[in-house]
Amino acid sequence: MGSRAEQSTGRDWRDVVRDAADLALLGILLTLAAAPVLTAGAAVGAASAAVHDWVGTGTWPPARRTLSRFGRGVLPGMPVTLLALAAAGLLAVDLAALATGRVPGGPPVLAATAVVAAALAGYAGAVVVEVGRNGGGRWRTAARHAARACLDQPARWAALAGTTAVAAVLAVLVTPVAVPILAGYTVAAVHAVARHRPVAARAGLP
Fold first, then answer.
1. What residue spans of the chain are helical by DSSP H?
2. Which of 63, 78, 131, 201 has a 20 to 30 A CA-CA distance from 48?
3. Cβ(46)–Cβ(71) below 8 Å
Protein backbone atom coordinates (compact mmCIF):
# COMPACT_ATOMS: atom_id res chain seq x y z
CA MET A 1 0.00 0.00 0.00
CA GLY A 2 1.27 3.48 -0.83
CA SER A 3 2.01 6.31 1.52
CA ARG A 4 -0.63 8.73 2.77
CA ALA A 5 0.64 11.37 0.32
CA GLU A 6 0.00 8.93 -2.53
CA GLN A 7 -3.47 8.16 -1.19
CA SER A 8 -4.52 11.79 -0.75
CA THR A 9 -6.18 11.91 -4.18
CA GLY A 10 -9.90 11.34 -3.87
CA ARG A 11 -10.04 11.99 -0.12
CA ASP A 12 -13.04 13.97 1.07
CA TRP A 13 -14.28 15.44 4.34
CA ARG A 14 -15.31 12.03 5.66
CA ASP A 15 -11.73 10.85 5.47
CA VAL A 16 -10.58 13.94 7.34
CA VAL A 17 -13.18 13.38 10.07
CA ARG A 18 -12.18 9.73 10.34
CA ASP A 19 -8.51 10.64 10.68
CA ALA A 20 -9.33 13.22 13.34
CA ALA A 21 -11.38 10.67 15.28
CA ASP A 22 -8.60 8.09 15.00
CA LEU A 23 -6.01 10.52 16.36
CA ALA A 24 -8.34 11.56 19.18
CA LEU A 25 -8.80 7.90 20.14
CA LEU A 26 -5.05 7.38 19.97
CA GLY A 27 -4.53 10.27 22.38
CA ILE A 28 -7.10 8.90 24.82
CA LEU A 29 -5.53 5.42 24.75
CA LEU A 30 -2.06 6.95 25.13
CA THR A 31 -3.19 8.89 28.21
CA LEU A 32 -4.82 5.83 29.78
CA ALA A 33 -1.73 3.72 29.16
CA ALA A 34 0.49 6.44 30.64
CA ALA A 35 -1.70 6.96 33.71
CA PRO A 36 0.50 4.80 35.99
CA VAL A 37 3.29 7.32 35.13
CA LEU A 38 6.10 4.76 34.88
CA THR A 39 4.45 3.35 31.76
CA ALA A 40 4.43 6.75 30.04
CA GLY A 41 7.56 6.02 28.00
CA ALA A 42 6.13 2.77 26.68
CA ALA A 43 2.81 4.46 25.91
CA VAL A 44 4.45 7.27 23.96
CA GLY A 45 6.69 4.83 22.10
CA ALA A 46 3.81 2.57 21.07
CA ALA A 47 1.69 5.55 20.02
CA SER A 48 4.54 7.02 17.99
CA ALA A 49 5.15 3.69 16.25
CA ALA A 50 1.43 3.46 15.43
CA VAL A 51 1.47 6.97 13.92
CA HIS A 52 4.60 6.13 11.94
CA ASP A 53 2.86 3.08 10.46
CA TRP A 54 -0.29 5.10 9.74
CA VAL A 55 1.58 7.89 8.01
CA GLY A 56 3.60 5.45 5.93
CA THR A 57 0.91 2.96 4.91
CA GLY A 58 -2.40 4.74 5.42
CA THR A 59 -3.59 2.09 7.89
CA TRP A 60 -3.18 1.62 11.63
CA PRO A 61 -1.20 -1.37 12.89
CA PRO A 62 -3.15 -4.29 14.42
CA ALA A 63 -4.04 -3.87 18.08
CA ARG A 64 -1.98 -6.93 18.99
CA ARG A 65 1.15 -5.39 17.49
CA THR A 66 0.60 -2.14 19.36
CA LEU A 67 0.02 -3.99 22.64
CA SER A 68 3.18 -6.00 22.04
CA ARG A 69 5.16 -2.84 21.43
CA PHE A 70 3.77 -1.34 24.61
CA GLY A 71 4.62 -4.43 26.66
CA ARG A 72 8.18 -4.59 25.34
CA GLY A 73 8.66 -0.90 26.01
CA VAL A 74 7.59 -0.75 29.67
CA LEU A 75 10.95 -1.54 31.30
CA PRO A 76 13.17 0.35 28.81
CA GLY A 77 10.80 3.31 28.99
CA MET A 78 10.92 3.72 32.78
CA PRO A 79 14.29 5.53 32.95
CA VAL A 80 13.21 7.73 30.05
CA THR A 81 10.01 8.66 31.90
CA LEU A 82 11.90 9.51 35.10
CA LEU A 83 14.47 11.58 33.21
CA ALA A 84 11.76 13.48 31.32
CA LEU A 85 9.82 14.18 34.51
CA ALA A 86 12.96 15.40 36.30
CA ALA A 87 13.95 17.69 33.43
CA ALA A 88 10.43 19.09 33.08
CA GLY A 89 10.19 19.65 36.82
CA LEU A 90 13.50 21.50 37.02
CA LEU A 91 12.63 23.72 34.07
CA ALA A 92 9.20 24.48 35.52
CA VAL A 93 10.73 25.43 38.87
CA ASP A 94 13.33 27.64 37.19
CA LEU A 95 10.73 29.40 35.03
CA ALA A 96 8.42 29.95 38.00
CA ALA A 97 11.23 31.31 40.15
CA LEU A 98 12.36 33.70 37.43
CA ALA A 99 8.82 34.83 36.62
CA THR A 100 8.04 35.63 40.26
CA GLY A 101 11.37 37.37 40.93
CA ARG A 102 12.59 34.86 43.52
CA VAL A 103 15.72 34.35 41.41
CA PRO A 104 17.64 37.36 40.03
CA GLY A 105 18.03 37.78 36.33
CA GLY A 106 14.85 39.43 35.17
CA PRO A 107 13.25 39.16 31.74
CA PRO A 108 16.47 38.40 29.80
CA VAL A 109 17.25 35.29 31.85
CA LEU A 110 13.59 34.28 31.81
CA ALA A 111 13.53 34.56 28.02
CA ALA A 112 16.77 32.59 27.67
CA THR A 113 15.43 29.86 29.94
CA ALA A 114 12.21 29.69 27.92
CA VAL A 115 14.25 29.31 24.71
CA VAL A 116 16.25 26.47 26.28
CA ALA A 117 13.03 24.81 27.40
CA ALA A 118 11.57 25.08 23.90
CA ALA A 119 14.76 23.67 22.35
CA LEU A 120 14.71 20.70 24.73
CA ALA A 121 11.03 20.14 23.96
CA GLY A 122 11.82 20.17 20.24
CA TYR A 123 14.57 17.63 20.80
CA ALA A 124 12.15 15.50 22.81
CA GLY A 125 9.75 15.64 19.88
CA ALA A 126 12.53 14.44 17.56
CA VAL A 127 13.27 11.56 19.93
CA VAL A 128 9.60 10.56 19.95
CA VAL A 129 9.63 10.44 16.14
CA GLU A 130 12.80 8.33 16.08
CA VAL A 131 11.36 5.94 18.65
CA GLY A 132 8.31 5.52 16.42
CA ARG A 133 10.57 4.70 13.49
CA ASN A 134 12.30 2.08 15.66
CA GLY A 135 9.04 0.30 16.37
CA GLY A 136 8.40 1.98 19.72
CA GLY A 137 11.69 1.20 21.46
CA ARG A 138 15.49 1.63 21.40
CA TRP A 139 15.41 4.96 23.20
CA ARG A 140 19.19 5.40 23.33
CA THR A 141 19.55 4.89 19.61
CA ALA A 142 16.61 7.23 19.03
CA ALA A 143 18.18 9.88 21.26
CA ARG A 144 21.47 9.75 19.30
CA HIS A 145 19.73 9.90 15.93
CA ALA A 146 17.51 12.75 17.10
CA ALA A 147 20.49 14.75 18.35
CA ARG A 148 22.25 14.31 15.01
CA ALA A 149 19.11 15.24 13.08
CA CYS A 150 18.58 18.40 15.16
CA LEU A 151 22.16 19.55 14.64
CA ASP A 152 22.08 18.76 10.92
CA GLN A 153 18.71 20.46 10.36
CA PRO A 154 18.30 23.32 12.88
CA ALA A 155 15.29 24.70 10.99
CA ARG A 156 13.42 21.45 11.50
CA TRP A 157 14.53 21.44 15.14
CA ALA A 158 13.06 24.92 15.51
CA ALA A 159 9.84 23.74 13.86
CA LEU A 160 9.60 20.83 16.30
CA ALA A 161 10.24 23.22 19.18
CA GLY A 162 7.45 25.48 17.97
CA THR A 163 5.09 22.53 17.55
CA THR A 164 5.68 21.24 21.06
CA ALA A 165 5.45 24.76 22.50
CA VAL A 166 2.06 25.31 20.85
CA ALA A 167 0.89 21.94 22.17
CA ALA A 168 2.01 22.89 25.69
CA VAL A 169 0.15 26.22 25.53
CA LEU A 170 -2.98 24.52 24.23
CA ALA A 171 -2.76 21.92 27.01
CA VAL A 172 -2.96 24.77 29.52
CA LEU A 173 -5.75 26.62 27.74
CA VAL A 174 -8.12 23.81 26.76
CA THR A 175 -10.46 22.07 29.13
CA PRO A 176 -8.74 19.17 30.94
CA VAL A 177 -10.96 16.58 29.27
CA ALA A 178 -9.54 17.62 25.89
CA VAL A 179 -5.89 17.17 26.88
CA PRO A 180 -5.81 13.43 26.03
CA ILE A 181 -7.20 14.22 22.57
CA LEU A 182 -4.50 16.86 22.14
CA ALA A 183 -1.87 14.20 22.93
CA GLY A 184 -2.78 12.19 19.85
CA TYR A 185 -2.70 15.25 17.62
CA THR A 186 0.68 16.27 19.05
CA VAL A 187 2.28 12.90 18.23
CA ALA A 188 0.95 13.16 14.68
CA ALA A 189 2.14 16.77 14.41
CA VAL A 190 5.76 16.02 15.34
CA HIS A 191 5.80 13.16 12.83
CA ALA A 192 4.44 15.49 10.15
CA VAL A 193 7.08 18.13 10.90
CA ALA A 194 9.88 15.55 10.93
CA ARG A 195 8.79 14.16 7.55
CA HIS A 196 8.58 17.57 5.89
CA ARG A 197 11.46 18.21 3.53
CA PRO A 198 12.76 21.71 2.78
CA VAL A 199 11.81 23.16 -0.60
CA ALA A 200 15.43 23.03 -1.79
CA ALA A 201 15.67 19.33 -0.96
CA ARG A 202 12.40 18.55 -2.74
CA ALA A 203 13.60 20.40 -5.80
CA GLY A 204 16.91 18.55 -5.81
CA LEU A 205 18.87 21.73 -5.16
CA PRO A 206 22.12 21.74 -3.16
1. 4-7, 13-34, 40-57, 63-100, 106-133, 139-152, 154-173, 179-195, 199-202
2. 201
3. no
